[in-house]
Amino acid sequence: MIVVMSTGSGEKEIKEVVKRLEQAGFKGHLSTGVERTVIGVVGAAPGLSDLRETLVLLPGVDDVVPISKPYKLSSREFQPVNTVVNVNGVRIGGGQLVVMAGPCAVETEEQAMSTAHAVKAAGASILRGGAYKPSTSPYQFRGLGEEGLKLLAMARQETGLPLITEVLSPGDVDLVSQYSDILQIGTRNMQNFVLLDEVGKSNKPVLLKRGLSATIQEWLLAVEYVLSQGNRQVILCERGIRTFETHTRNTMDISAIPAIHSLSHLPVIADPSHGTGRQDLVTPMSLASVAAGADGLMIEVHPTPHLALKDGAQSLDFEQFSELMNRIAPVAAAVGRNIAGRES
Ligand code: PEP
Ligand code: MN
């Protein structure tokens, strides 16, 4: 449920409500709007309905309203205004289209540097790249580990692009945070609750990919783990789900984009590289995602996709990526967005 404070209420009244919640075994999460503060009540203690009756009696409380959805802090009921995640000045969810691009996996210094420069020149505003790679098969390339993080950090330094990279295990959150500006949680880890708790305690923005077979509700419940630990800087990423179709690697669920926008205040971006697994479908699905209102795109780019150690079949070369950027610009403009970092 949420406690809606009256417009004139101040810090003292808010503190009193939070204290009462804690006494009853719950936690209060504040959403501070322009006019009034809303306090989200989360926790599994008994006696929620009794608490509701007494909370309305406290000074400064206007109303106490149940949240109809099982996810709470991610819901629009708790926070009607969009969350904007600020990554070193790049604002995700603030109305612009933010493009994150780079290799699936970092392979060499030359590959990381040339790709970072190419995606920047084409108008990307965030660099992506994997150092710790989750793989379906243990025999695939599993990434360069910390060496890869160092190469990515060099590429960030040279281009000035903020960096996103995946963290695979709770024990690596501190290390990856030393290098990365955004912590990516991959599809296979969407329900790794220990990892979600850990990134929830970090002060870095988190990008949470949709699980391979996760419903939208399961995805939003996963995000609650991060939010309820206190980290409110979260971006969602639709990256395709498992269906009976085999022509594509996954089935890109474009409808998830407007669905998330109506259910949640969190930004949502699209990853048509993993969503389709096919180079030829990345651009059309990017266009569709932008038209559907995505706050950003994540695109895999490689200097020579046919030689890539991972995900070459879905990676664009530099020219194809630059072409993609040119093609999305008018679609973005048609839905009232411009591309962050690019002259429009
Ligand atoms: C990736 O971004 O390279 C990746 C492994 O993504 P996903 O978790 O969506 O498969
Ligand atoms: Mn990949």
List the uncertain runs: none
Largest sheet: 8 strands, parallel, barrel
Structural category is alpha/beta
Output mean pLDDT: 96
Describe the protein's architecture and organization.
The structure is a single chain. The chain is α/β, with parallel strands linked by helices and 344 residues long. It folds into two domains: 2-65, Alpha-Beta Plaits, CATH 3.30.70; 85-334, Aldolase class I (TIM Barrel). The chain contains eleven helices and 14 strands. The strands form three sheets. It has an eight-stranded parallel beta barrel with strand order 7-8-9-10-11-12-13-14, surrounded by seven helices. Strands 2-3-1-4 form a four-stranded antiparallel sheet, covered by helices on one side. Strand 8, helix 4 and strand 9 (163-166) form a beta-alpha-beta unit. The longest helix is centred in the C-terminal third of the chain and has 17 residues, at 318-334. The protein is elongated, with a radius of gyration of 21 Å. The model has no long low-confidence stretch (mean pLDDT 96). The structure holds phosphoenolpyruvate (PEP) and manganese (II) ion. Manganese (II) ion binds at residues 104, 274, 300, 310-311.
